[in-house]
Give the backbone structure.
Amino acid sequence: QVQLVESGGGLVQAGGSLRLSCAVSGSRFVFNVMAWCRQAPGKQRELVAAITRGGNTNYADSVRGRFTVSRYNAKNTVDLQMNNLQPEDTAVYYCNADDILGSFWGQGTQVTVSA
């Protein structure tokens, strides 16, 4: 059974940094795309950053230049380095792994940025 487990969320002041990590367990399959999405209260879930097995990346305009996504295929993990965090980045952040096997989600980790 494939499971994704996120870690690294928390409370930080505006301008600060956090690093989120996501580990895939229950499968050695290296997913084609791994991504981070977020959902703020009252808003739809949105893509933050994605990275392919080959290392190609895609970012939401709102985070480009501040966030960096990276993955380690040998360990089946994906990280999100978040710098210069702003209050509007406050949300629950979810890890996603997507491939022909299906699309899998973690339970989410809360990121709160105070002004």
Observations:
- The longest strand covers residues 91-99.
- The mean pLDDT is 95.
- The radius of gyration is 13 Å.
- The chain is about 0% helix and 55% strand.
